[in-house]
């Protein structure tokens, strides 16, 4: 739904409309509603709905009455009623779909919340609005410095100027109550505007700032989620997730909103499962539940005293055993139900890899040093002919002795030959 200005440029960098949240087509903005009734005409004699939905900064929307009967369409910039002065916003929805949205949010047409639209914004109104929006970032940095200097336990997350620049709203988060009377005085002197402080929750702060979640997509609260329901740790327990706060918490520091998305499906599936606390009484012994698989519908039980041996049983079989126990009857053992289940779920796998076995890395490899040592030993050993010799064993012993003595003589002669030149050199030195 993005406009043409959001495409990439010549260098591959994104162009961007550079309107600071005032996109003309309203396609790049979050919480955009698609008007599927725009191509349908009203029947004769029916007046169009006189209320219009208008969006302000960071997805803040409200409904206004079109008392002047202006011809408005999506993307028009209008001046609306505010206290005091006027505010500037963009029309996001018109027609009968606004009536449906107001019924959904339980807002009555004649209530005081629904204010009036003054006129379409002129060029002068838009210039004042743009100048005020350009000041927001610098004022936010300066306001944080003042809050730190006053040692207030609060965090200023965002700033929003009114369309005419007469009022500035500071959105902040704090865990405890903050006394910011001195802060407002310094803000009024520093920025010379009317100051309004508005406390928001941590989830609303993440929705205003936006970001990327652990799933790799934009945060749900900043794109489409409008109602922030409370999330409890029981949602993670029902889904059998590890209670690790680092994995379960989002960027706001609270539990992730997506834990509630599939909670109803898990609760419906767990209705067929027996309670984990219930024990199965058999003739072999009492069994205790160790693990459950909600997707496949299996439970793992272990006998008391034999905690290492788990028996896989389906939910139907577990409920049968519990009914028998309620009737004061005992089943022979869990192996009967587990063996039937194993026969049904037995699957034969083929070796897709080829001749490589899956257990080829189980045995440790022999070191190459041992192999080299064994090879050297085999080389130094005398070669023995494979043919059987006809000589008797006594003669073979004598031959081996003679070979040893001859080898010793040869070694002695070599040593003497090495020593002789050294002795001659000594004699020459004496002379």
Assembly form of the protein: single chain
Q: For the largest beta sheet, what order do the strands appear in spatially?
A: 1-2-5-3-4
Number of helices: 13
Please tell me how large the radius of gyration is.
43 Å
Structural class given helices, strands, pairing? alpha+beta
Distance between the termini: 111 Å
Question: Shape from CA axes?
Answer: elongated
| Secondary-structure element series | EEEEHEHHEEHEHHHHHEEEEHHHH
Number of domains: 4
What is the averaged pLDDT score?
80
Tell me the helix content.
25-40%
Largest sheet features? 5 strands, mixed, barrel
Poorly predicted sequence stretches spanning 5 or more consecutive residues? 384-389
* Percent in strands: 15-25%
Strand segment count: 12
Question: How does this model look, in words?
Answer:
The chain is of the alpha+beta class and 431 residues long. The chain folds into 4 domains: 114 residues, no CATH class; 66 residues, GMP Synthetase, Chain A, domain 3; 63 residues, no CATH class; 65 residues, no CATH class. 35% of the residues lie in helices and 16% in strands. It is built from 13 helices and 12 strands. It has a 5-stranded mixed beta barrel with strand order 1-2-5-3-4. A hairpin with a 4-residue loop joins strand 9 and strand 10. Helix 3 runs antiparallel to helix 4. The longest helix is centred in the last third of the chain and has 38 residues. It starts with 50 loop residues before the first strand and ends with a helix. About 1% of the residues have low confidence.
């Amino acid at each position: 739904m993005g406009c043409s200005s959001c495409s990439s440029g010549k260098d591959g960098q994104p162009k961007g409309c550079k309107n600071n949240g005032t996109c003309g087509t309203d396609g790049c903005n979050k919480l955009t509603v698609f008007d599927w009734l725009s191509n349908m005409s009203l029947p004769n004699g029916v007046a169009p709905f006189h209320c219009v939905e208008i969006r302000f900064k960071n997805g803040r929307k409200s409904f206004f009455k079109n008392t002047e009967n202006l011809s408005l369409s999506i993307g028009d910039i209008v001046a609306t009623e505010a206290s005091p002065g006027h505010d500037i916003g963009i029309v996001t929805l018109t027609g009968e779909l606004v009536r449906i949205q107001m019924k959904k949010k339980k807002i009555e047409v004649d209530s005081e919340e629904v204010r009036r639209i003054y006129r379409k914004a002129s060029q002068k109104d838009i210039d004042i609005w743009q100048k005020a929006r350009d000041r927001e970032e610098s004022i936010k940095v300066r306001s944080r410095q003042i809050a730190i200097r006053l040692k207030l336990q609060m965090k200023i997350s965002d700033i929003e100027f009114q369309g005419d620049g007469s009022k500035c709203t500071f959105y902040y988060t704090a865990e405890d109550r903050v006394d910011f009377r001195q802060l407002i005085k310094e803000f009024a002197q520093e920025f010379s505007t009317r100051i309004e402080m508005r406390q928001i929750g941590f989830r609303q702060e993440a929705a205003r700032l936006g970001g990327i979640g652990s799933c790799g997509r934009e945060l749900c609260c900043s794109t489409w989620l409008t109602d922030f329901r409370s999330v409890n740790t029981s949602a993670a327990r029902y889904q059998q997730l590890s209670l690790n706060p680092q994995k379960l918490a989002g960027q706001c520091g609270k539990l992730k909103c997506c834990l509630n998305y599939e909670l109803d499906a898990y609760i419906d599936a767990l209705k067929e499962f027996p309670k984990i606390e219930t024990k199965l009484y058999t003739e072999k012994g009492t069994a205790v539940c160790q693990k459950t698989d909600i997707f496949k519908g299996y439970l793992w039980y272990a006998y008391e005293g034999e905690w290492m041996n788990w028996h896989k049983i389906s939910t139907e079989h577990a409920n049968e055993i519990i009914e028998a126990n309620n009737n004061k009857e005992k089943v022979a053992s869990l192996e009967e139900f587990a063996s039937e289940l194993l026969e049904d779920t037995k699957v034969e796998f083929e070796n897709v890899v080829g001749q490589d076995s899956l257990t080829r890395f189980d045995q440790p490899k022999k070191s190459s040093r041992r192999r080299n040592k064994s090879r050297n030993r085999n080389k130094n050993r005398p070669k023995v002919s494979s043919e059987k010799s006809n000589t008797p064993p006594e003669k073979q012993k004598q031959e081996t002795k003679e070979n040893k003595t001859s080898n010793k003589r040869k070694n002695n002669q070599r040593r003497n030959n090495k020593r002789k030149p050294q002795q001659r050199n000594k004699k020459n030195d004496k002379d």
